């Protein structure tokens, strides 16, 4: 790819400018601040993305100061003479990229056809030469200089070579074959001394291990029993709750067998209409018998007069009957909730035998005091050192062997460590001193720490339930007080009857009032129409009877008595449905569990069996507790284990330190060798050709003074024309720079099959004398036959062709 045109929309000081570039080499001339470096930075930014606004990169953004559009485009021509245009403007993640091949826009993924897959860092490290990279050569010491020169052969290898050297030095800090003060050497000597001391304890340790094994077996049996006891305790609680729910379940099951289906329920409108028709018919028939009836009887008259005298109060009661009905429903619901809470409280006492009424929650400070343990024994005896020893041997085998034996040894090591860790978790819970004054005050005397801790949530639940119970009882008391007030008012007005349903009492009263009013209206009507013929009344009765018969026929009954009986059955079934729904809500998921028992005796038999198993397991745990205490006492009498355990701990720590130090030493050694091996592989195919080309370039730059460059895995040798060989650090600084430039340019030409982008030279040779500068220009011309070179400088060589020079001083961009 040859860069043929640069077009800048806006970048730093440049805006709306463009230049055509030669395909071989292009010299860009300008004094300081003319925008030379800005132009080269623009080329890199369009190729690889604009710098971000974070950190030091923000100074490389070159956002235009005059408000122009940020970005621009580069035009390339490939080997097939096809034009490629790379356009990048302001946008996220390095700017918005658009790529054209000829006149057709192509996917951004084809950008690798131009960049060869290189990153910006790779490109700068290989194709960009500036005063910074050249001047850095002057500041390197001998070792750094040789590393820098040798790293030219592979992109990024300088950092890898430095890393390899650091790794090698780091490994020698940990261990040297003839060292004395290195940490790993010291740990190995210490290990020999510790193992010699350990052999003295072996005889006593046999009896101690036997007691420890017996103790571990007893603990395992105790833990197994404890798990079973937890399961039985949960089962016991569930069965106790089911036993308490049995009477309600029996009632629910019996009611569930009742047929509560309503094939043709009576509507409220039909029921009210039938009552009115029946009443009207009865009144008419009475009028037929006593045509001269002109007033209500005394009782009905008194009833109606009493209503008129107290109309406002009675109408208010009638308007409030819905609220009164809601209060009675709330009363029943609160009673049920109180009963449910009583059940929960009883269950808490049943499942927590240590729970007392006067227990109080512990404060945060009291819990901290309670949790401060006073241990009376060293738990380190639980470590299974034989298993750990086998694991360590397996680790050594896994490290120094290969194949199936290495895999097997690795598995043994992992299994041994996991087993030893598991055994170490089975330590005794440290005995604690519970003799704290606040425990007696809050009724915890005689309980263990674990029991006290376990009771905190239970006491909190009990307090919450009691608080809720108090709240419910207050609501119930308030509800009952309101109902008593309503009942008193109903009693004052004579509305109470045999029914406990106050709303029904009001409804009965107004039903009677409605009946009396209807009767009164009929009487008044009769008085007005007493002169009408008997036939008119008969027609009315016939009409009413037809309407009533239609309603009766709709519900398949023959009389009003049958309809009233059907209505009564309908109300009864609705009551059963409500009771079933209420019981079902209370029983919840317990219904399925209760269905598993055929009768109450079977349930109670199961509960007794679980209770017996609970007592048996509790007794077994008590016996095991005493057995564990006895074994501990016996083991402590064998010998004082403190000193031996300290020795074992010291050995374990010593071995752990050796493994960690060995791992560190081995990792550094292997990593250093790996870096060198990978760099050798990465460069072996290109180095011979690159060195041949670099030798030619170096000879040209030194005017034939140096004729050969030799390279081996660890150093570079330069041969002068008189056959004298020099190391890199023996060269003069200027000659070292010439060598560095020769290698850099030779490397770029060698990888031109991977990336064919211009070499960017940013006034890199300002410190060269005239002879060296002329040699550099000759080299640039030669290199440009293989790879395009863009060279910016403030010192113009008068011998350069004018068609290869762009003078930035002639460009106006104010």
TrEMBL record:
Where does the signal sequence lie? none
Ranges that cross the membrane: none
Q: Which UniProt keywords apply?
A: Coiled coil
Q: Which Gene3D superfamilies match?
A: P-loop containing nucleotide triphosphate hydrolases
Q: Which residues form a coiled coil?
A: 184-235, 455-489
Start and end residues of each YhaN AAA domain: 1-200
Please report the name of this protein according to its UniProt entry: YhaN AAA domain-containing protein
Source species? Companilactobacillus nodensis DSM 19682 = JCM 14932 = NBRC 107160
């Amino acid at each position: 790819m040859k860069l043929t045109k640069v077009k800048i929309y806006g970048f730093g000081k440049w805006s709306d400018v463009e230049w055509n570039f030669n395909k071989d080499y292009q010299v860009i001339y300008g004094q300081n601040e003319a925008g030379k470096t800005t132009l080269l930075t623009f080329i890199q930014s369009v190729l690889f993305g604009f710098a971000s606004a974070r950190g030091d990169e923000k100074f490389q953004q070159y956002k235009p100061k005059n408000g122009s559009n940020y970005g621009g485009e580069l035009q390339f021509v490939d080997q097939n003479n096809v034009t490629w245009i790379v356009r990048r403007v302001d946008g996220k993640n390095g700017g918005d990229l658009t790529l054209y091949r000829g006149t057709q826009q192509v996917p951004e993924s084809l950008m690798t056809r131009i960049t060869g897959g290189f990153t910006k860092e790779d490109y700068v490290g290989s194709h960009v030469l500036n005063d910074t990279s050249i001047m850095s050569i002057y500041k390197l010491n001998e070792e750094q200089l040789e590393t820098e020169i040798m790293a030219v052969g592979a992109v990024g290898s300088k950092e890898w070579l430095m890393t390899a050297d650091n790794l090698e030095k780091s490994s020698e800090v940990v261990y040297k074959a003839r060292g004395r003060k290195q940490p790993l050497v010291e740990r190995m000597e210490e290990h020999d001394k510790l193992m010699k001391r350990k052999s003295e304890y072996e005889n006593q340790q046999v009896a101690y291990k036997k007691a420890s094994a017996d103790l571990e077996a007893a603990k395992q049996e105790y833990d197994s029993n404890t798990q079973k006891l937890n399961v039985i305790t949960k089962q016991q609680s569930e069965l106790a709750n089911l036993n308490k729910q049995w009477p309600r379940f029996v009632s629910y099951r019996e009611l569930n067998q009742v047929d509560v289906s309503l094939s043709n329920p009576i509507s409220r409108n039909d029921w009210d209409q039938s009552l009115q028709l029946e009443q009207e018919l009865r009144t008419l028939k009475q009028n037929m018998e006593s045509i001269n009836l002109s007033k209500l009887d005394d009782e009905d008259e008194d009833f109606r007069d009493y209503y008129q005298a107290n109309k406002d109060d009675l109408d208010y009661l009638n308007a409030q009957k819905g609220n009164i009905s809601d209060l009675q429903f709330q009363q029943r619901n609160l009673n049920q909730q109180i009963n449910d809470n009583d059940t929960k409280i009883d269950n808490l006492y049943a499942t927590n035998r240590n729970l007392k009424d006067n227990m109080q929650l512990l404060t945060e400070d009291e819990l901290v005091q309670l949790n401060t343990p006073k241990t009376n024994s060293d738990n380190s005896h639980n470590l299974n050192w034989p298993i750990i020893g086998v694991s360590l041997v397996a680790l050594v085998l896994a490290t120094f062997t290969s194949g199936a034996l290495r895999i097997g040894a690795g598995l043994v090591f992992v299994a041994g460590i996991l087993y030893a860790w598991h055994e170490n978790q089975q330590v005794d819970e440290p005995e604690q001193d519970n003799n704290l004054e606040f425990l007696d005050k809050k009724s915890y005397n005689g309980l263990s720490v674990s029991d006290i801790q376990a009771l905190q949530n239970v006491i909190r639940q009990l307090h919450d339930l009691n608080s809720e119970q108090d709240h419910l009882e207050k609501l119930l008391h308030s509800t009952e007080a309101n109902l008593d007030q309503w009942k008193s008012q109903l009693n004052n007005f004579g509305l109470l009857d045999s029914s406990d349903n106050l709303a029904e009492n009001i409804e009965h009263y107004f039903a009677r009032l409605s009946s009396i009013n209807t009767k009164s209206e009929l009487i008044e009507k009769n008085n007005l129409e007493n002169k009408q013929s008997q036939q008119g009344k008969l027609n009315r009765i016939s009409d009413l009877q037809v309407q009533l018969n239609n309603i009766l026929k709709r519900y398949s009954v023959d009389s009003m008595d049958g309809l009233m009986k059907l209505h009564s059955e309908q109300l009864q079934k609705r009551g059963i449905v409500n009771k079933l729904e209420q019981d079902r809500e209370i029983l919840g998921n317990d219904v399925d569990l209760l269905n598993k028992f055929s009768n109450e005796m079977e349930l109670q038999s199961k509960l007794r069996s679980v209770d017996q198993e609970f007592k048996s397991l509790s007794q077994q745990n008590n016996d095991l507790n005493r057995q564990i205490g006895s074994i501990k006492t016996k083991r402590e009498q064998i010998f004082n284990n403190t000193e031996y355990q300290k020795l074992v701990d010291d050995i374990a720590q010593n071995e752990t330190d050796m493994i960690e130090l060995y791992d560190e030493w081995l990792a550094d050694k292997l990593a250093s060798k790996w870096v060198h091996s990978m760099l050798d592989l990465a460069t072996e195919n290109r180095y011979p050709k690159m060195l041949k080309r670099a030798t030619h370039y170096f000879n040209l730059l030194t005017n034939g003074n140096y004729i050969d460059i030799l390279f081996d895995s660890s150093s570079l040798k330069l041969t002068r024309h008189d056959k004298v060989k020099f190391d890199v650090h023996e060269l003069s600084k200027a000659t070292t720079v010439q060598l560095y430039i020769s290698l850099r340019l030779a490397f770029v030409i060698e990888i031109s099959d991977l990336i064919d982008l211009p070499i960017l030279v940013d006034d890199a040779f300002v410190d060269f004398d005239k002879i060296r500068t002329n040699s550099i220009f000759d080299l640039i011309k030669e290199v440009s036959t293989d790879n395009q070179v863009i060279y910016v400088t403030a010192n113009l060589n008068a011998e350069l062709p004018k068609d290869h020079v762009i003078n930035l001083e002639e460009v106006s961009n104010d």
